[in-house]
Amino acid sequence: DVKVTQSSRYLVKRTGEKVFLECVQDMDHENMFWYRQDPGLGLRLIYFSYDVKMKEKGDIPEGYSVSREKKERFSLILESASTNQTSMYLCASSGGLAGGLADTQYFGPGTRLTVL
Amino acid sequence: AQSVAQPEDQVNVAEGNPLTVKCTYSVSGNPYLFWYVQYPNRGLQFLLKYITGDNLVKGSYGFEAEFNKSQTSFHLKKPSALVSDSALYFCAVSLHTGGFKTIFGAGTRLFVKA
C-alpha cells in the first residue's frame, strides 16, 4: 500500500509566523501535490512537483512556496502565516504510469492548520 | 471556465437502498475522471477512475460509476448502501494534454441511515 505521511495532524500558529508542512511518501512516486480543503470549495491545488527540485504553481499559490530536495519529500512553506490560511492541508502523490501527472493520487491524512 | 459540479451538498439514503451521488463536468479534451471518499479526520481515499474503455467502471467497496460523454457526467452508484458508506465523496477530473490540471468538486456528504 502507498503510504503518504504528513508531519502534523493539528497545528496552531500565530499571524506572521513561518510555517513548514512536511509530506513524505514511500512509493517512489515522481509526482507530489499540495492542496487546501475548505468547506464548500472542495480541494484546491496550491503547488505540484513532477521531479526533484521541480515545482509548478497550481490554482492558488499566493502566500505559499514549496521545496522538493528529495524524491520522497515535499514541503509546503507559509512564509508569513495569515488568518485566511487557516485550513486543512492535504498532500498527495502519484506514480505517473501511463497517465502521468493526471493519474490516481494517494493522499496523506491532512494537517489542520489554525492561524491566530 | 473549466469546472466540476456536484449538485447535491448532501444525499440521504436508507441502508439497503441504492444510492447515487451525481457529478457533471465542463472541461476541454478527454479528462480522466475519479471518485474519492473521505472519512472523518482522514485524507482522501481513491475509489475508482475512468480513463478509457467501458463506460461502467467498478471500484472499491462495491461502488461503480457510469461515464456519459454526451451528458458529461460521471455519477457514482452503489446497489445497496451500508451505514459505513456515510462519508464525504469527491468527484475529480484531471487533464493530461496541453498541460496538467486537476479539478475537484465541492464534495457531497452521504448519510446512510440504519
Name a few traits of the molecule.
heterodimer, A: 116 residues, mainly beta, 4-stranded antiparallel sheet, 0% helix, B: 114 residues, globular
Short summary of the structure?
The complex is a heterodimer of chains A (116) and B (114). Chain A is an all-beta fold and 116 residues long. Chain A has no helices and 11 strands.
Description:
The complex is a heterodimer of chains A (116) and B (114). Chain A has strands at 4-6, 10-13, 19-25, 31-38, 42-49, 56-57, 64-70, 73-78, 87-94, 106-107, 111-115. By secondary structure, chain A is mainly beta. In chain A, a hairpin with a 3-residue loop joins strand 4 (31-38) and strand 5 (42-49). Chain A starts with a strand and ends with a strand. In chain A, 38% of the residues are buried. Chain B has 114 residues and is mainly beta. Chain B is 0% helix and 54% strand. Chain B is built from no helices and 12 strands. In chain B, strands 2, 5, 6, 10, 11 and 12 form a 6-stranded mixed sheet that branches. In chain B, strands 3-9-8-7 form a 4-stranded antiparallel sheet, with no helix packed on it. A two-stranded antiparallel ribbon of chain B has the order 1-4. At the A-B interface, strand 5 and strand 10 of A face strand 5, strand 6 and strand 10 of B.
Largest sheet of chain B: 6 strands, mixed
- In total, the number of strands of chain B is 12
Distance between the termini of chain B: 40 Å
Number of DSSP strands of chain A? 11
Secondary-structure element string of chain B: EEEEEEEEEEEE
**Mean pLDDT reading of chain B:** 93
What does the overall shape of chain B look like? globular
As a percent range, the share of helical residues of chain A equals under 10%
Largest sheet report of chain A: 7 strands, mixed
